[in-house]
Each structure stands twice: as structure tokens, then as C-alpha cells.
What we know:
Number of helices: 14
Helix content: 40-55%
Shape: globular
Strand content: 5-15%
Structural class: alpha/beta
Number of strands: 7
Distance between the termini: 19 Å
Radius of gyration: 21 Å
Order of helices and strands: HEHEHEHEHEHHEEHHHHHHH
Amino acid sequence: MTAASFFIKPGYQSRTQPEYYADIHDDGTVWQPEVYPLAATLARQHGCRYIIDIGCGRARKLSMMYPEFQIIGLDFGSNLEYCRANYPFGNWVEVDLENSDGVQFPPDVLQNAVVISSDVIEHLVNPTPLMALIRSYLLHAKVAVISTPERDLERGYQDMGPPGNPTHIREWNLAELEAMLSNAGLRPAYCGLTISNNREMQRKTSLAVVPGVSLNSLAVRDLGVFCERWLAASPEMREADNGNYLRDLAQLERMVEQTQVATQPLLAPMTPLEIGMGHIEAARYEEAFKVLTEALKTDGQNPAVVFQLGRLAAICNMNDDAKELFYQAALRAPEVVKDIVDFFQERLTRARAGLE
Length: 356
């Protein structure tokens, strides 16, 4: 599993182009029934006034959070047209999550916001810009709640894609999702399972709760414990326990202030290697070359930097340079050979699928 394959197992076949997802459900089924209530609970705990829903669809669940919260929905096409026509109290923003930098909001809005991206990432050919957008929001926002179908539980451990849903490009199992998010700088405080729909009541959806940089290490730990406890509890237990948790959180914050515990952001600043990898995934090859060559000047023995330069050269059809760079990376760390093999296997798979 590598960043090039979005950390999905080798040999998995992604769909090349999805159908547009028109968020229309007429049978009364509620999908991911715990995601929005959990987000609302976290927003209350942190005193947030805004809910920002990236890929809101027709916003049925989001609209129910008004007027307790000011709601902001990001989407495009008929889904967004529906929201504007039916929920005039919301703020509806058109965004292309794959071919733009998204949309930014004032820091004072983000500081009072919880972010949701519920079952969106599987619809994207390139999910890298979405993850970058969420990370940028978390520079100020308190927490992000991300969900997506758990492939192994939905389709079986032997599934090699493409997904059965024609609107999905690819699907992750829980471990793959956590690896991809962590690699993108979105290290979850909690990563587990949630109920997929209110009919079957089976936990076949992956749920990641990612803290903002403003949360100190104690608060991050507390967040993870609470999410695990909340998801395991009945609705009655959740409601009864909420007040106690709010008191515990307030007490924790006072302890931090009194003892002057140094803030330890979970989302550390991105390294030049991570920045370079992000540029490669977003096809910004000139920027990737500049960042990685500068990194090589300061850390010439780093095999990961040399390997990424080799990837870049291969992608740009500079085959002789790629061969030499991969050779140099393997000399520095023989275990890199596996990454090189995985990279070429991924390219071969994409070529057969018509992606290259």
C-alpha cells in the first residue's frame, strides 16, 4: 500500500469515472444515522455555532441541525440547486472538490465550526484536494468527522473492485483509510465503525474523527475516548451521559490552563517530503521537483526523498533519471525496493485501466 494507490491494497481496480451522485432516497432509509448526531454533540461540547458539510448532497440531515447551528453546505450540480430551493436558511456554496482549492472561510467562522465529510471521499477520482481542504479547515476548526463505506465489510475481503456502486471510484477498508488520512496529515483521534443505515443497523461504515490543531494532547485523547464510548452507547445512554462529559471537558480545560500544559498539536507542520508528495498526487510536478530537490540538499541520505524524486521522474517519462534515482534510494535503504515494485505495479494497473 502506497500513497500513489491511496493506500489501497495492490491489484485493486478503481473506477475511472463515476456517475453523478444525485442524493435521492425515497424509501425512508437514513444512511449513516450516527454521523450527524455525533458531529452535533461535538459541536455542543466545544461551543461551536457552525456546521460545515463538505459534499452535503441534498442536505436532509444537515438541514435538521438548523436553527441550533448555522449550516454551510458545499456541493455542486442538482444537489446544490435542491438545497438552495428548499433550505433558504442555509449557506450553500458551489465547489469542485477535485479541480480547485475548495473554498475558504474566515478564521472566526472556522474557529467555531465542526466539519463533516460524510460518504464523499469514495466518489472522487482524486481525493487529495478534499483531504487538503479538510486539513486547512482544521488549522482553525475544532474537529472533522469523516465517513466512508468499509469495503471489506460491505463487499467481502476478497473484493478487488471496482465498487458495486457506480457513483463510487474506490472504497477503503478501515486500516487503509486510517493510513491514507494519517499520511495526509489528518491523524484521527478515533477511527472505527458506525452504523451504515437505520434499517439493517449493521456497522459497515468507517468513521474517522480528526482533531483540529487547537486541541492539546489531553483533549485529543479525551476526544478519542469519548467517541468510542458514544458510538458504543444507546441513544438513552448518550443523552444521559452528555452533561457529565461536558463537565469533564470543562474541568480538563481548567486543568490545562492551571498547569500550563504546553499545547501539542496533533497535526504537525508538513515536512518538505510530505509537501512534495502532496504536489505529486495533485500533478503539480514543477512544484514537487523544487520542494524535493531542496529537501535533498539538506538531507541527501534520506531514501524517502530520493524515492519520491524517482517517482516524479518516472511519472514525467524521464526513465533514465528514474532508474538512477530508484537505484540510489535502494542503496540507501534496501527495503525501498518494495516501494519501487509497488509503484510500478500501480502504474501497470492504472495503464491497464486506461488511467495512464
